[in-house]
Design a protein that fits this description.
Layout: E1 5-12, H1 18-26, H2 34-39, E2 46-50, E3 57-62, H3 70-77, E4 82-88, H4 95-106, E5 112-117, H5 124-138, E6 148-150, H6 159-170, E7 183-185, E8 188-192, E9 196-202, E10 207-209, E11 213-217, E12 221-230, E13 233-235, E14 237-239, E15 243-249, E16 261-263, E17 269-280, E18 288-289, E19 293-298, E20 301-308, E21 314-315, E22 322-335, E23 340-345, E24 350-359, H7 369-380, H8 383-394, E25 397-398, H9 399-406, H10 410-422, E26 426-428, E27 433-436, H11 437-457, E28 464-465, H12 466-471, H13 479-491, E29 495-498, E30 501-504, H14 516-529, H15 536-542, H16 547-559, E31 563-565, E32 571-573, H17 574-587, E33 591-593, H18 594-601, H19 605-617, E34 621-624, E35 627-630, H20 632-640
Parallel strand pairs: 1-3, 1-4, 4-5, 5-6
Antiparallel strand pairs: 2-3, 7-16, 8-9, 9-15, 10-14, 11-12, 11-16, 12-13, 12-15, 17-22, 17-24, 18-21, 19-20, 19-23, 20-22, 23-24, 25-27, 26-27, 28-30, 29-30, 31-32, 33-35, 34-35
Helix pairs in contact: 8-9, 9-10, 18-19
Organism: Anaerobacillus alkaliphilus
GO molecular function, one term: RNA binding
Keywords: Cytoplasm, Elongation factor, GTP-binding, Nucleotide-binding, Protein biosynthesis
């Protein structure tokens, strides 16, 4: 039974003896505030270690009973493993008894003990009536089969029996997950002189070591766990289920508040929109309208927001029912799938219901049955379905992020991923990201279709610019995924990257059939006119080519090395340039002047000067004042090229 840690909560009406019972069990007075002492009621959560016969380690939480302190009560019971419903024998079931019972049920508490206190104040007959009254109240709840224990905390009557019952009940309760990622919702923040900021809370999941680097969410503050204490005892390690105080380095008291969450990894979602399954209470005093104001109690957080229904415009509360809906919060919280919550109306104050988080990363959905069906699938889905659904939504995601989004343990997510890989339903991308095979194929097909149309209309062009190809796709797919698709489809010989352009791998630029003859006419004319060509615009206009095709043809001929620009307006056949360069090289010395070139080529100055400047641009010659010198290496390479 070693390394098992549990938290027990006490709930019940004010002045029914919760704090006194805690002291009787633990010898610790949990009323520590001056105001609590003066008013004889608990305002803040009180905590104490309970020693049992076995090595089970137990923390007892004394939660406030007064209705004004209901939020502290909710924060207290949110992380408990066993609850003791405290009912005073002298009063029996009271309003807060009922409200606390509702809240405990809504939070999904499964294990409980009914403790009747102050038994020395009543006779046996009244005690029996109180027990019957309680039994009627808890009928149909998780406490229906719970054992009754009768105690008097002052005289300690029944206290040992209660400890035995607690130990017996806890022996059947699974301990919390100490292997998962660490999470501690903070319910107290204070400073210790010479130590700095200290936070307290019950570790929901995982374990923490002294010296660990942690993060406070939702702020995203990095901190170090400098020192750990469990009930004022210094520890090197804290485990799920333990009430723990952590001295944090790197943060001030003012930067942290109750409701923040201390975590060890990035697996936890910070969100302000959550999809939930809400179990409503019967008999609301006032109907709750669509987008009505609500107060969410989740863990130790208390956040205002609005409720969004997808199958109604009003919640009447005439009957208790389960509703799939969404909460849009005024500020971000930290939660994951399965977390329990309580929903209250801010004004007039009233508990609406409670339930659990279906998806911590809700989005805006349309009103209607389609959304309800989708939420139902989310609620009931298998891990494989949830992973697949999230991949459909996110398109391209790593296992770490996927685990955070679907809110499942790492091993379960990895098993789902492996199953999808085995079935070829998923593709592993770069840097450990994954995409569904169907989405990959979908994107490739969209790109191919787009390029087929583009090539058909622009057959002279090398391809479509990458920016244009991705422009419309970026609206529906992550940029990282699109880059991966382009890279992989190129490896698969489906697409080809040509500089800044993308083309179908099988495509080669060519004259469009409709204009092929006229374009061939242009090429023939360029060959015919040799070095002393008309300006480009004149030649293509005579051929009857449309303006856009004139530009496309020019770029095509230059790109395919069929022509070389003499200047901005004249384009000469590369064949004729090559002949002229060879002739000039053969008939001149290593150094020559403009007049030497004129005698060899017999060109007018209008064409001779730009031709010589072209040789300089091609690095075939180097000009020094009036002379040019042949660059033999560059000349040989250029002549050798096709």
């Amino acid at each position: 039974m070693g390394d098992r840690f549990y938290t027990i909560g006490m709930a019940g009406h004010i002045d029914h003896g919760k704090t006194t019972l805690t002291k009787a069990l633990t010898n610790i007075d949990t009323d520590r505030l001056k105001e609590e002492k003066e008013r004889n009621i608990s305002i803040e959560l009180g905590f104490a270690p309970l020693k049992l016969k076995s090595d089970i380690q137990v923390s007892v939480i004394d939660v406030p009973g007064h209705e004004r302190f209901i939020r502290q009560m909710i924060a207290g019971v949110a992380g408990i493993d066993l609850v003791m419903l405290i009912v005073g024998a002298d009063e029996g079931v009271m309003p807060q008894t009922k409200e606390h019972l509702d809240i405990l049920s809504l939070l999904g508490i499964k294990n409980g003990i009914i403790v009747v206190t102050k038994i020395d104040r009543v006779d046996e007959e009244l005690l029996e009536l109180v027990q019957e009254d309680i039994a009627m109240e808890v009928a149909g709840t998780f406490l229906e089969e719970a054992p009754f224990v009768f105690v008097d905390s002052i005289s300690k009557k029944g206290i040992d029996q209660l400890k035995d019952v607690i130990e017996e009940k806890l022996s059947d309760v699974p301990s919390r997950d100490a292997k998962g990622a660490f999470r501690l919702p903070i319910d107290q923040v204070f400073t210790v002189h010479g130590q700095g900021t200290v936070v307290r809370g019950t570790i929901y999941e995982g374990a923490i070591n002294e010296g660990d680097i942690l993060e406070i969410l939702p702020q995203g503050l990095k901190v170090r766990a400098r020192q750990l204490q469990v009930h004022h005892e210094k520890k090197e390690r804290g485990f799920a289920g333990q009430r723990t105080a952590i001295n944090l380095g790197g943060v001030s008291k003012e930067e942290v508040k109750r409701g923040d969450v201390l975590v060890s990894t990035q697996q936890y979602a910070t969100t302000s929109t959550i999809d939930v399954s809400l179990q409503t209470l019967k008999g609301l005093d006032h109907p709750l309208k669509q987008r009505g104001h609500i107060k969410l109690h989740l863990g130790t957080a208390e956040v205002y927001g609005k409720i969004v229904f997808f199958d109604r415009n009003e919640l009447s509360g005439e009957e208790s029912e389960t509703i799939l809906c969404q909460l849009r919060l005024d500020e971000p919280i930290v939660t994951r799938r399965g977390d329990r919550f309580i929903l209250r109306r801010p004004t007039p104050v009233e508990t609406i219901g409670g339930g659990f988080v279906i998806d911590p990363n809700g989005e805006k959905y349309k009103f209607g049955e389609t959304t309800i069906d989708m939420l139902e699938r989310k609620k009931e889905g298998t891990p494989l379905e949830r992973v697949t659904d999230m991949l459909k939504e996110e398109k391209y995601v790593s296992i770490v992020k996927l685990q955070k989004l679907v809110d499942l343990p790492e091993d379960i997510v990895r098993n789902a991923i492996n199953e999808l890989l085995e079935k070829n339903n998923i593709i592993e991308g770069e840097q450990g990201d994954f995409v569904l095979s169907s989405i990959y194929v979908e994107i490739v097909e969209l790109i191919r279709r787009d390029l087929e149309e583009f090539h058909e209309e622009n057959s002279l062009r090398e391809g479509k610019s990458k920016a244009e190809v991705l422009h419309s796709l970026k609206q529906n797919y992550p940029a990282k995924l699109l880059e991966f698709v382009l890279s992989r489809s190129e490896q698969e010989n489906q697409l080809a990257k040509r500089g800044q352009f993308i083309a179908l791998a099988e495509f080669q630029p060519h004259f469009p059939s409709k204009w092929a003859k006229r374009m061939e006419q242009v090429v023939t004319e360029l060959e015919k006119q040799a070095l002393q060509v008309e300006n480009w615009e004149s030649i293509v206009t005579k051929a009857g080519l449309p303006t856009q095709l004139q530009e496309d043809l020019k770029h095509y001929l230059v790109r395919t090395n069929k022509v070389i620009p003499l200047d901005e307006k004249h384009y000469i056949s590369r064949t004729h340039i090559k002949v002229a360069v060879k002739k000039l090289r053969e008939k001149t010395a290593d150094e020559f002047e403009l007049q030497d070139a004129k005698e060899v080529l017999q060109l007018s100055r209008k064409y001779l000067v730009p031709f010589m400047e072209l040789l300089d641009r091609l690095r075939l010659t180097t000009r020094t004042e009036t002379k040019r010198k042949w660059q033999h290496v560059e000349y040989d390479k250029w002549i050798a090229t096709e």
